[in-house]
Structures are given as structure tokens and as C-alpha cells.
Design goal:
237 residues; alpha/beta; Rossmann fold; Dihydrodipicolinate Reductase, domain 2
Length: 237
């Protein structure tokens, strides 16, 4: 499979290593100094995009027009998701987006949602979330944390929203830490007067994210439509 890397930072380099190990070819490495128009897109089977939130929609639209399936790992752009889906449908192309491509994290998503469902009838357990990432992480809380929070909100009806600075009992308190050289840690806590229930995912390196992105690209090649990692892994939460 011929892959174009749209974004060639730390994640792009990690994806390149995994892709080559799995027998794929990297036919383009695109960064801010490489115009999209300079690439021979006829050679590309799938594009993998890890850039910046303000660029994601234009990248998705560009690939849709060329009918190049695109895997998007950029986060904090989902306010444009409907526009992205419309472009994918119009051009009969393919998009797979995820807040996190790690297999372990996607299993953690399913576990988090199930725990939220189990505790939905026990309001004495107050939920909170903590996440820690490297200092280069642009969004806070992380896209992974937002996905976890949205799944909690879908079942925990005593909460209306989440906040980094909660001012009411109806907001889930969130803490976002930024320290050097941390790939990503997420912890969901349910605390009561009697006891505490915690679930936690700790990433040891970027390899899990890179592997998941390549697996997603392998899944997306030859498909049309919009997908998420739950489709790739066949996870039923």
C-alpha cells in the first residue's frame, strides 16, 4: 500500500516506521514546506493526516476531491465534521477519524462507557477526569479525554457538561496536566463517601498510536464512507 503522510512530525515519523515494518511504502511526506500540489497523488492509496485543527477540514476536502481515502488523527476539529462528511459523500471518497488510534485506548473507551452505564443509577458516585500529556500537546483537554467525557455524559444524566473550571455540580471536573515527554495518560474517577472506583490508561510511547493509524489505513483502503476506530476493531460498547 502506498501511503502519503500529511504531517511529518513525531507522529508522522513513528507512523513511517510502523508502515515500513508492515510492508507499505511511504510515497509522500508533506509538511508546511511541501505544497499539496507538489505531490503525485496518482501514486497514493491512502493519506494519513496528523497536523493542526485549523487545517484538518481543508485536508479532508482536498483528499475527497481526489478520491484519496484519508485517516485523520488531528483532534479539536470536529465542529467541522458535518462539512467533512458532506464532502466525503459528494465525492464518494472515504474518511476515518479518531481522537486516538491506540487499540488499548479504544478498548478503554468501551470500558469507560460500560462503567458509566453501570454507575448511572448511583448518583452518590461523583465522576471526574484527569489527563496528562507532553507540553507540545495543543488542545486541553485532549481529544481522547473529550471522547471519554462525551461517553460519560451520554449515560450520566446528573451531568450537563464538563469543565476545566467547574462552577456547578452538573459539570464534570477535568484536570489537564502538561509535562515533558509524556505520551498520554487518562484516568476516570468515581468517588463516593464510602469508596473510589478508578480506571486508567497509560501510554508508554507513541508506537500504539502509530500502529493503530496504519491499521486504520489498511482498513480504509478500497472503502467509501465515514468510519471510526470502533469499526476497525469491531468494538461494541
Amino acid at each position: 500500500m502506498n501511503i502519503a503522510l500529511l504531517g511529518y512530525g513525531k507522529m508522522g515519523k513513528a507512523i513511517e516506521q510502523i508502515a515500513l515494518e508492515r510492508g507499505h511504502q511511504i510515497v509522500a511526506k508533506i509538511n508546511s514546506q511541501t505544497p499539496l500540489s507538489s505531490i503525485d497523488w496518482s501514486l497514493v492509496d491512502v493519506c494519513i493526516e496528523f497536523t493542526q485543527p485549523q487545517l484538518a477540514l481543508s485536508h479532508i476536502t482536498y483528499c475527497a476531491e481526489k478520491q484519496i481515502p484519508i485517516v485523520v488523527g488531528t483532534t479539536a476539529w470536529l465542529q467541522d465534521l458535518d462539512l467533512a462528511k458532506a464532502s466525503i459523500e459528494q465525492h464518494q471518497s472515504a474518511l476515518l477519524h479518531a481522537s486516538n488510534f491506540s487499540v488499548g485506548v479504544n478498548l478503554f473507551f468501551a470500558l469507560n462507557k460500560k462503567l458509566a452505564e453501570l454507575l448511572s443509577n448511583y448518583p452518590e458516585y461523583k465522576v471526574s477526569l484527569s489527563e496528562t500529556h507532553h507540553v507540545q500537546k495543543l488542545d486541553a483537554p485532549s481529544g481522547t479525554a473529550v471522547s471519554l467525557l462525551n461517553d460519560i455524559l451520554s449515560t450520566q444524566k446528573q451531568y450537563e457538561s464538563w469543565s476545566l473550571e467547574p462552577n456547578s455540580a452538573a459539570q464534570i471536573p477535568v484536570v489537564a496536566h502538561r509535562i515533558p515527554d509524556v505520551p498520554g495518560t487518562h484516568e476516570v474517577i468515581y468517588d463516593s463517601e464510602i469508596d473510589t472506583i478508578r480506571i486508567e490508561h497509560i501510554a508508554h510511547n507513541r508506537k500504539g498510536f502509530a500502529l493503530g493509524a496504519v491499521i486504520a489505513a489498511e482498513f480504509l483502503k478500497g472503502r467509501k464512507g465515514c468510519y471510526q476506530m470502533s469499526d476497525v476493531l469491531n468494538i461494541q460498547a
